[in-house]
Design brief:
- This protein is an alpha+beta fold.
- Helices cover 20% and strands 37% of the residues.
- It is built from one helix and three strands, in the order ββαβ.
- It has a three-stranded antiparallel β-sheet, with helices on one face.
- Strand 1 (4-13) and strand 2 (18-23) form a beta hairpin.
- The N and C termini lie close together (10 Å).
Length: 70
């Protein structure tokens, strides 16, 4: 079992769909491939943002995942 913080840089299209997610290792407390892949899979499959047809083609932001053992 592992724990740590994974920070992802994400790109979101005009429809609110996450189209790219990459780890920001300098801001993460772990380099675990397992935790990073869990975070990437979750953000791409489950996150949706408000759509805006007048927005730029892509919006960029960051998401922080905190994995804790229980």
């Amino acid at each position: 079992k592992e724990e740590g913080v994974v920070v992802l840089k994400i790109k979101v299209d005009r429809n609110g769909k996450v189209i790219e997610a990459r780890p920001v290792l300098q801001e993460s407390s772990t380099v675990s491939v397992y935790l990073t892949n869990l975070a990437i899979k979750d953000v791409i499959e489950n996150y949706r943002f408000n759509s805006d047809p007048d927005a730029s083609f892509t919006q960029v932001g960051k998401i922080r995942y905190v994995f804790q053992l229980k």
